[in-house]
Amino acid sequence: MSLPNTPEDWALFVNLALDQAYGRERHPMSIAEAAQAFSHSRFPAEPIATVRGGDLEGFEGALIRDPSRRKGWGIFFNAAEPSKRRARFTIAHEFGHYLMHRYFIADDRDGFYCHTAEVPVDATPMENPKQEREADRFAANLLMPPYDLERRISPFEATDLNMLSCCADHYGVSMLAIIQQWLRLTRLRAVLVVSRDDFVLWSAASRSAQGLRRRAFGPPDGEPVEIPAQSLAAQRELTSYPKEGAPMAPGVWFPDEAALEMAIFADRYDFIASLLLLDFE
């Protein structure tokens, strides 16, 4: 049987095997257990022998081959990361490297060392952005299978933070991860803006809103973009944001478009994420 060629196909391949072994209601299962079990079953000559936290100063995760140059592999995540959900994404990311990229590691290297997970590759400096993008896409589709998420939130229906929070709990992922996966699947126009100190760090959008996002926030290497003073994200006096969001008139986020803004303040990581729905009425 030929092996998959894309991150999405790899994630589907693994998920179907896990569904068969554990059932479709297995979420959120241990991603460490899944990675080890799958690798031992499909690649017994070079399995993932260990998955554990470690001291990875300056990195979030690593895929490292056995130092004795045997065929086994280890996945390591930053033990200092306080969020178990982010650690799960990191493990899934490294599992993606194992499946797709382990044969591309140069002989003088012992593996992959990866920076922050859950953040678009264009927003962070890294050595091989193509492979990092692929590992991120694999991780998202492994942890949040599209065929399962679309049963919970229809691609043709708007969502809200309560619904997204329930899905994040179901899959054992962060709100940032579930929002980005929802954006990949929805047919509606929606934009995610992540900001710090009133300036945009990075943004993402659903397929139908990519042009709108580019016009509003520009390329990642452009001039810094300030968030609107009238936006929820700019209201520093608020201790929490309304879960149902707040309507923003045309001219606030987008020149000719109204939007429903739902904001999340992640104090641990010092950023605000604004999910902007344009098709909300």
UniProtKB/TrEMBL annotation:
It comes from the Bacteria. Pfam families: Peptidase_M78 (PF06114). Residues 56-178 form the IrrE N-terminal-like domain. This is Putative Zn peptidase. It comes from Magnetofaba australis IT-1.
